[in-house]
């Protein structure tokens, strides 16, 4: 009889354990599904926000944002706290995406710049790194995904809000400081000298025009689109611009 009771109890324990494991597994899977749905909703809101805010600015209607993302209004405060929170999150997302695309070139340049004294960059290496950063930036500018980024960023450049600080901290400041240091090596100058720093936006501007003035670029160059052949021409132009910096430095040295 005792043996029967033991078997019965063991069967009950096995059943309860199996039921518990099954319930836990179901709960875990459901939790994972909820998390995936939440992440998908958040991603749709960010993508919609970049487009809508880029077109209409931070005054865009909350309902417009929700409709564009295909979610209900409550999703915005749930995931971002408020429309302003979504606006700032969109700026951070843009900075992160741009950083991902140009980050490797910037990191390579920073590592070379930060070498111990006595093992610093020569002009040729600095020029090559500068070219690499500009080419990475150009590659991003011709990518269709940058269209929404550009509209958002241009608005913040013209009428800065708190989002500009997120963009600047995320990639703008890092990019300009890196370019200024590379240019300073090429020109034998001080990266804090306004005359040196002014060359950074000049170079970046020649790349940003590929997105900010895309229609004009295509029209005036008789291009239907920017493919591999066209981008190779852009790369050559970038190299020529950097070589102009080098020639300018040599001319200044000869004049001295």
Low-confidence stretches: none
DSSP E strands, number: 0
Mean pLDDT: 88
Strand content: under 5%
Number of helices: 11
Helix-residue proportion? over 70%
Radius of gyration: 27 Å
Classification by helices and strands: mainly alpha
Mass-distribution shape: globular
Describe the sheet with the most strands: none
The assembly state of the depicted protein chains is: single chain
State the distance separating the first and last CA atoms: 109 Å
- Secondary-structure element series: HHHHHHHHHHH
Q: Your description of this structure?
A:
The longest helix is centred in the first third of the chain and has 55 residues, at 2-56. Helix 1 crosses helix 2 (62-69), helix 5 runs parallel beside helix 9 and helix 5 (123-141) runs antiparallel to helix 11. The chain is globular. The protein contains eleven helices and no strands. The termini are far apart. The relative contact order is 0.09. By secondary structure, it is mostly helical.
